[in-house]
Design goal:
The protein has 351 residues and is mostly helical. The protein has a domain of 122 residues. The chain has 16 helices and four strands. The chain has a two-stranded antiparallel ribbon. Strands 3-4 form a two-stranded parallel sheet. Helix 1 runs antiparallel to helix 6 and helix 14 packs antiparallel against helix 15. The relative contact order is 0.09.
């Protein structure tokens, strides 16, 4: 037997399996659970795209490296993914970021970059083109973020709601489009809605999920000099970004308004899931919406003090949602039950 083949699985296959299981599980609590529901033909490109995006995010968030160096590394990364720079150049550029990671899983993720790039070269052409397209948008959003918030010594703020919409689209809304394109290509009779309708719903769903991240991290971001809430909305109530933490009660109407927009995005995710015919794909697609609905419910409970807390859905509740989806075969009725109880702040379904 060839040394690169074990039990009928070649070395590249073993590496991709390791990436989409052990490494993916270590860097993503909920996304790994979604991936497990998917059929293999979707699991491969979606897992790879996530790992590459998570790697670029880790590079962008390595604050011990100067902002200009991080932007240069992302540009090199982008060129490598698009086939404009060699794999060796990208790996060498990112290597200096590895020892700076305090999280062991993120160190391992960056160390796995050569395997991820090799996997990208081996994956089918149509999937590779889609991965490249979505990563190009995500990295554009990350670089835009670094350009806006690169100086931690002062509080910087987005100017308008359109700027926040642009950001949430670039780092998440485009992922909804990517997911939709893959599903229509790989699955016969994927949805009861036409592709353009599903693309629009997927885009708004992704943007809503990213808004939840913005809301969850608002306090931490403000302390780091980043304010994603539009300056024109703050100005309308006579509040500056620097005053939000000390006058959080006055900020609540703006926070609540963006919570409602996030809720609208989750509603699009629910409509998207209702149109999906494949139960496994439906489960994988709707899981983030169910966790997101529970997260928004947790945000509402502390009110203004949410900015001083780290709010996450407990692991036991996430496991309970996953188990319920599996036991009930992702039935429309069960999905609606979980979503409605989470939205109504009724937690019995998770106990």
């Amino acid at each position: 037997m060839n040394s690169d083949t074990v039990a009928g699985v070649d070395a590249p296959g073993r590496r991709s399996w390791h990436l989409r299981t052990a490494i993916l599980r270590s860097v993503s609590r909920s996304f790994y659970l979604s991936i497990r529901f998917l059929p293999r033909q979707l699991r491969e490109p979606i897992a790879l795209a996530y790992l590459l995006a998570r790697t670029t995010d880790t590079v962008a968030d390595t604050t011990r490296v100067p902002c200009t160096v991080r932007m240069e590394a992302l540009k090199m990364f982008s060129d490598g993914i698009l086939g404009k720079a060699s794999r060796e150049m990208v790996v060498n550029q990112v290597a200096s970021f590895v020892p700076l990671q305090e999280n062991a899983a993120e160190r391992t993720l960056l160390d796995s970059l050569p395997d991820c790039l090799e996997w990208l070269e081996q994956i089918g052409r149509a999937d590779r083109d889609d991965i490249r397209a979505v990563l190009e948008k995500i990295m554009h959003g990350q670089m835009l973020d670094l350009h806006r918030f690169g100086d931690p010594t002062q509080v910087r703020v987005l100017e308008t709601a359109a700027d926040l919409d642009e950001y949430t689209y670039l780092v998440a809304g485009c992922v909804g489009e990517f997911w939709t394109q893959l599903c229509f290509r790989h699955l016969r009779d994927f949805a009861s809605l036409i592709q353009d309708e599903m693309l629009a719903l997927g885009r708004r769903y992704g943007m809503g999920l990213q808004l939840i991240n913005v809301l969850r991290d608002a306090g931490t971001d403000l302390r780091a000099g980043r304010c994603y809430f539009p300056d024109d909305e703050l100005g309308a109530i006579g509040l500056s970004a620097a005053q939000i933490l000390s006058e959080s009660d006055r900020f609540q109407p703006i926070y609540q308004s963006w919570m409602e927009k996030a809720q609208d995005g989750l509603a699009c995710g629910m409509e998207y899931s209702r149109a999906i015919r494949n139960r496994r794909v439906r489960a994988a697609t709707v899981l983030p919406a169910l966790i997101g609905a529970r997260t928004l419910a947790l945000f509402r409970k502390p009110g203004a003090s949410a900015l001083d807390q780290t709010i996450k859905v407990p692991r036991r509740e996430v496991r309970a949602i996953v188990l319920s989806l599996a036991v009930h075969l992702a039935s429309h009725r069960e999905i609606e039950t979980i979503f409605n109880r989470a939205t109504e702040n009724s937690f019995a379904v998770f106990r």
